[in-house]
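Is this the right way to post structure tokens for a design question? Let me know if I should format differently. Anyway, here goes:
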């Protein structure tokens, strides 16, 4: 009932990959709470996803990969996020950085990064800066020219999976313009140990300090452009939708098994009404997302595209469903051992990840109202 949102079939051949990922996800779900409690990267999950062909699949055909569709990507991340949203986040960031480096560096190092992704090397995005806030594609750090490239000093925040990354996708201003680079982390890149988050704890999204790190000219890429396979914008809504699905599952399980004065909680009318409202809005969020993925597969770009709207709605609905879970869960759901509290913590993160719900709302609202963007 809660998962009857799949409207459009995926392409031939993608079903098998999704079945393999769904099998793996059953095992990931069983240990997700333990990884969260220990705030530990589930490296074994990432290895299993690579073995299952996820990294080869996500690489576009133009970069030598299998060319997963947006619809297939969305389904894959959603399956993962329902089971273990930290693994879903790390894999999305890894795939996003790997595909971006393969595409951005095109004719220079593109085939090198594509081969590395297919070989099982790990990638992470070091884009967000303390001073650029949510506008992670607009770096404030200026890279200064040096022999063979440019030098970068400054911090990048919330770099998910950075501790196990073989390559970082890094941006900085070069001659006043945002430029993108592949960076092999060396002794000039260090972790500032402030990391410890409320939710998505198994992403270990660290603050990185760069101290005269060389941005090599040979690993310099162009900026993102239409037509690139946009893994992260397409994957982020699925993280919140997967969390929302899991939160609704936990809520339903609790409401059906918890008896109050001789009757299951599910028999109380307020629970039925609230669940109807939450499930219907969640189904609408899934439908908008499916439509946006289909549009992306068909090259249809809409005003601040529907993937951003789908993220906005998915982020909000996930928090709403998770909060309802806490109400329905009562004291039992408030216990640390309950999945209900973890879903609430995880749901909050979706709104923060760029672009945040506030940034998206600003763009959509200005567009609807006809208010020009500020320079
Ligand atoms: C779990 C997690 C994983 C992440 N992983 C990565 C990663 O792998 N790589 C990476 O580079 N980044 C990553 N990020 C960073 C993320 O994508 C955001 O860029 C970053 O969190 C936003 O910056 P900030 O936290 O400094 O928030 P701030 O920018 O300080 O935001 C504070 C508030 O201001 C609002 N706000 C900010 N800018 C604007 C604006 N221009 N207009 C209107 N409102 C605004 C925000 O919505 C928020 O409500 C991750 C974040 C999280 C939570």
């Amino acid at each position: 009932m809660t998962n009857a949102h799949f409207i459009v079939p995926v392409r031939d051949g993608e079903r098998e990959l999704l079945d393999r990922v769904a099998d793996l996800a059953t095992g990931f779900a069983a240990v997700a709470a333990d990884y969260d409690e220990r705030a530990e990267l589930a490296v074994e999950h990432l290895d299993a996803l690579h073995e299952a062909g996820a990294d080869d699949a996500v690489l576009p055909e133009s970069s030598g990969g299998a060319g997963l569709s947006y619809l297939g990507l969305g389904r894959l991340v959603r399956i993962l996020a329902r089971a273990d949203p930290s693994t879903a986040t790390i894999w999305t960031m890894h795939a996003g950085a790997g595909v971006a480096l393969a595409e951005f560096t095109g004719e220079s190092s593109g085939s090198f990064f594509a081969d590395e992704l297919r070989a099982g090397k790990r990638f992470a995005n070091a884009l967000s800066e303390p001073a650029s806030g949510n506008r992670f594609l607009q770096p404030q750090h200026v890279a200064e020219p040096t022999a063979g490239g440019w030098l970068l000093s400054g911090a990048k925040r919330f770099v998910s999976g950075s501790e196990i990354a073989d390559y970082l996708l890094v941006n900085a201003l070069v001659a006043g313009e945002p430029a993108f680079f592949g960076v092999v982390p060396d002794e000039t890149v260090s972790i500032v140990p402030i990391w410890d988050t409320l939710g998505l704890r198994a992403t270990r999204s660290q603050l990185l300090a760069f101290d005269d790190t060389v941005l090599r000219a040979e690993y310099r890429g162009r900026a993102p452009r239409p037509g690139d396979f946009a893994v992260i914008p397409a994957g982020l809504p699925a993280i919140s939708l997967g969390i929302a699905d899991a939160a609704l599952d936990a809520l339903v399980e609790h409401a059906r098994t918890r008896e109050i004065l001789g009757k299951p909680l599910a028999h109380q009318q307020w629970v039925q009404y609230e669940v109807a409202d939450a499930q219907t809005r969640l189904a609408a969020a899934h439908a908008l997302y499916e439509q946006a993925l289909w549009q992306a597969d068909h090259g249809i770009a809409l005003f601040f595209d529907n993937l951003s709207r789908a993220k906005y709605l998915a982020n909000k609905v996930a928090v709403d469903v998770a909060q309802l879970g806490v109400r329905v869960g009562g004291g039992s759901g408030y216990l640390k051992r309950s999945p209900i509290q973890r879903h609430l913590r995880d749901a909050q993160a979706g709104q923060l990840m760029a672009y945040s719900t506030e940034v998206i709302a600003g763009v959509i609202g200005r567009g609807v109202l006809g208010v020009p963007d500020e320079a």
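Format looks fine. Someone answered above. Worth noting: The two ends are 47 Å apart (CA to CA). The pocket of flavin-adenine dinucleotide is lined by residues 93, 124-128, 133-136, 158-160, 200, 203, 205, 349, 352-354, 356, 358-359, 362 (CB under 6 Å).
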